[in-house]
Amino acid sequence: MTSPKRPQTSPSTSECVYEKLLSACPKDFREDHGPQMAQAFGDLCREERHKGKSGSLRLWSKALPDLALTVVLERNRSVAVLNLQPWRERVSGANVIVAFMLSMVLGIILFLVYGILAYEQLDYWAASQLVPIAVLTALYILLNLTAILTIGLLIRVEATNISARSIGLRRVSAWWLLVGAVIGLLCWAIGSLAGALYFWITGEVFYMPLEEFFPGLSRASFLELAFFWIGAGILSALANELLFRGILYTYLRRWGVGVAVFVSSVVFALVFSGFSVSLIAFVGVGAVLALVYERSGSLWPAISCAIVINTLGIFFGGLVLF
Amino acid sequence: MSQEVRRPEDQLPLTPAVLNILLSLAGEERHGYGIMQEVERRTDGKMKLGPGTLYRSIKQMLSAGLIEESDERPDPDLDDQRRRYYRFTNFGQRVATAELQRLESIVGSGREKGLLPGPPRTALEGVQ
């Protein structure tokens, strides 16, 4: 009854590749089940060979999505394994989506309003001239407040599993706040210097001057400027850090520091500079802010860093994070 | 691991993959590839478990106590490679039964409502 044992052939190229790809799985899972997954894949390969047709492509078209899904799901689950400090509870993908979507709603409305005005005036510059600086500031404050309140709401709602602590709002020593501020100073200095250098070499603008987005700023009164500083400088820093570092970075952290820093910085940069040359600067600053959060374990040093950058940028020009 | 009393109902509903793995382990221990083959054969090719999905479910089932590892030995029908065999635990068997009963009562409701041909549920009571 027993069929003759088939000779054990050496592993095919496909099997070798599959084994290499298995290294994307989290360590625990890989140690427990990796060899067996490779074994099962080898069996599937042999099955395909036996059927006669060269079904390599068909096999891979099923095995690859299956493996990719497994990697994503297992990594998503292995939060505790990745060396997170105990107070970093799980931020879910749903939290990220809700936080961003609700916060951006007002931004989209703002954009549409501007679009309509600009269309009628056939000129963005002329359209923005219509709106006094105080109103622009108020709209900007509203945008940032929406972001902050959205996240505050997410924390209050029982159904979500995030708390203020889990998104980084954790008490930290004054030393760290100072460190954040100093790093902010350095970031602003280096960033603005890089921008100035770029301008000096190419003659092209690196950072869009504030005046272009907020016309009338240079002629603003002290009160208007203070109002602007609170809204665009401080509230903006708060909202951005909560969204991009507090929610997004904490969520991405389960895939490792590298992935979390890279993705959150790129998203941050795309939102604030789009596909322009200053993208690189924003990715850099975003990475620095993410690392400050990571190292200190709290969002407050990153917020202090961002506030310093914005303050210097508003009053002296150069890099700003809004 | 946990000292609390585990109730089969707490594990329900089962994902299709988990249910099918339990079904394929009924009465016989199998290794991973064996489970994949049996499920594909039993569902007429409609359900094909990939290695990733299979072992992800196995991992879940192991930690939930539905299945346990048996031993490592070669499969006489395949080759000389040692393979890890699995079998379900008592708890796993109870969970499988509970899930099938749950599904059966849903099917029964479907028959009562005329959505599915066949005798309504009351006629099936007493049949084990």
Q: Can you describe this structure?
A:
The complex is a heterodimer of chains A (322) and B (128). Chain A is mainly α. Helices cover 72% and strands 0% of the residues of chain A. In chain A, 34% of the residues are buried. Chain B is of the alpha+beta class and 128 residues long. In chain B, helix 1 (16-24) crosses helix 2 (32-42). Classes of the chains: A mainly alpha (322), B alpha+beta (128). Chains A and B meet through helix 2 and helix 3 of A and helix 2 and helix 3 of B.
Question: What descriptors fit this protein?
Answer:
heterodimer, A: 322 residues, mainly alpha, 12 helices, 72% helix, disordered N terminus, B: 128 residues, alpha+beta, three-stranded antiparallel beta sheet, 45% helix, globular
For the biggest sheet of chain A, the summary is: none
Strand content of chain A: under 5%
Radius of gyration of chain B (Å): 17 Å
Please state the structural category of chain B.
alpha+beta
Average pLDDT, all residues of chain B: 86
